[in-house]
């Protein structure tokens, strides 16, 4: 005889989640006020010390992780982009451009807006999403954006070096799970993934993107693999637009493929 799930168990669990989310939201203003004070100090000097910079990074990283856990995935997306912005100045903290400072405040304002709306019961944030993409387009000088999924620092440096002269902005994610979230929530033009990416391998990542919303399906995909068998498989079996073997000429082939994709995207934009 099948046992029934106690009706009260699910209700208690849901109540606990709601309480945890409420506690998280109640604690956010203090975090954002701290972030504001650090940004204000940075604005006065157009510079920031290593310790304060790492504190900003720590606050943003914490919000990124906890926001998604409580169902506020837009916080995670904002913080992903905020972290990309922070990373762009990590090597030059003594002379910060005004654009960087302005965009830092803008991202913090978006985080505040999410919390204000969440307190009022909002579950979707279309206006904030549009504003977020607007900020992203302003500081991203490159015409096209690339999501690179690779956990090897050496390979990452090689691929970034190969693509450095192209009109692309390369953002690096070390595992397939985080890459899937970003691919589904941000407007990347090209996805380059290692077949051996941890958590969610390259083939599974591309398949998941293809099964998702129509918008993310349009992303062009490149699979970098150590398996010669995958190179010889048909497009239908692998589901990537291009498959490149990780050999001595991998970086050269990657440059050629990305250049070809950019040309195709340029032609498409002219006829759109």
- Per DSSP, what share of the residues sits in E-state strands of 2 or more residues? 5-15%
- The number of domains is 2
Query: From the coordinates shown, what is the CATH architecture of the largest domain?
Result: Up-down Bundle
Number of helices: 12
Order of helices and strands: HHHHHEHEHEHHEHHEH
What's the assembly state of these chains? Answer: single chain
Strand elements, count: 5
Q: Low-confidence stretches at least 5 residues in length (pLDDT < 50)?
A: none
- According to CATH, the homologous superfamily of the largest domain is HPT domain
How would a crystallographer describe the biggest sheet? 5 strands, parallel
**Which value, in Å, is the CA radius of gyration?**
21 Å
Rounded average pLDDT: 87
Return the structural class.
alpha/beta
N- and C-termini, Cα separation: 61 Å
Q: Which CATH top level class of the largest domain fits?
A: Mainly Alpha
